[in-house]
Here is the input.
Amino acid sequence: MNRVKIFAPATVANLSCGFDVLGCCLDTVGDEMVISLTEEPSVKITKIEGANLPLETHKNVAGVAVEALLKSYSKDIGVEIEIYKKIKAGSGIGSSAASSAGAVWAVNHLLNNPFTAQELVSFAMEGEKLASGNAHADNVAPALLGGFTLVRSYTPLDVIKLNTPNDLVMTVIHPQIEVKTSDSRSVLKQNVSLKKAIQQWGNLGGLVAGLCTEDYELIGRSLEDVIIEPLRSILIPEFTAVKEAAIANGALGCGISGSGPSIFALSKSIKTANQVAQAIHGVYSKTGLDFDIHVSKINSQGVKIIP
Here is the structure.
């Protein structure tokens, strides 16, 4: 086999209390990619549909990620990449991560899996570094491993796949405005008070415990961000109204997806998630802004082969 077609999933990062360390994988939203091995030792982006992205390898996150992988591979091979973007750039649901993770997963698969999941995460992080200036793993890790993931450490890299309760369903609203990751990072403070740090540590521990024990009430109580959300939410129109509508209609919790502008709401059932979708649709239909709403179960597999 020297060619494979894959689904590269969208992801929700941070999950309120887990800035740069928590993320989860979506099932109904994602890019498609076709990856081929060639004899000519080079990485080429041969086609991009659905987005105006660079074909130059060193300017494309998928190309950079694959080059990082091949640098650690013992044989000279070539790779050709076709990208069919379904996740809009700057949406806050892991557009660059999908391309980076999907590309390295597919190449690894075609090479009979010489690299571990942890190594693939590190390669995909090079794509994230190109996209945002920061090699974070909170999107690429769940895209590669599936489900919920925790980055316990960056040095050395230590990624843990967490339990995914079956009843959890994500509702995501994506306002059609662009909030670049680099811009959203610029509003953050470099220092936080000990009081807020303690609150955030408690919520992070509570969310991980809630996922592991499938305690939905604990999950809901833990989806609180006292450090990042107060600063970033001002960049997102009607954020407070969306959050209030989501909670009022049964969501366990609601917050900013990644760096925004997307907003996520986590619910216990598909019925509640659809009810939340209707409620936040009502909020945004009054703004005059275009928007997309996605309702998705959690994808426990991550990147996968498609026909």
